[in-house]
Amino acid sequence: MTYGLEIRDENGNVTLDPSSFTMRVVYSGVVTGTNSANFQTISVPGITPANSAAFVVPIGNYNVSVDMQLETEVINGAVRVYSYIRGREQYSSTTSSTMRLIVIRFS
């Protein structure tokens, strides 16, 4: 016998089973950048670049003239949030924007 969730439609057809692709939010929190070319590391156990994705979205008012997007990177067991564009820090504007970090794990 196999284990896991199985969902059927009104005709009895399986629409979701343990072999289905699924994803879930494993972390959600507020992060604030710095006004220098730095990053912060947020621990999220169990994530890897192969099974997870991370993104940030503005919260509250967002001034496009001064607020810049933070950048994310998934590493083993954590997410790094950068206050600049990785690989181009010498050309990037740094930002102290506050945003919501969302980490999704998929299978």
Write up this protein.
The protein is 0% helix and 43% strand. It has 107 residues and is mostly beta strands. The chain has a single domain, classed as Immunoglobulin-like, CATH 2.60.40. The mean pLDDT is 86.
Helices and strands in order:
Blueprint: E1 7-8, E2 14-16, E3 23-32, E4 39-43, E5 52-58, E6 71-75, E7 78-82, E8 98-106
Antiparallel strand pairs: 1-2, 3-8, 4-7, 5-8, 6-7
Overview in brief:
The protein has 107 residues and is mostly beta strands. The chain has strands at residues 7-8, 14-16, 23-32, 39-43, 52-58, 71-75, 78-82, 98-106.
Q: What oligomeric state is this? A: single chain
Q: SS-based structural class? A: mainly beta
Write the CATH architecture name.
Sandwich
Distance between the termini: 21 Å
Keywords:
single chain; mainly beta; Immunoglobulin-like; three-stranded antiparallel beta sheet
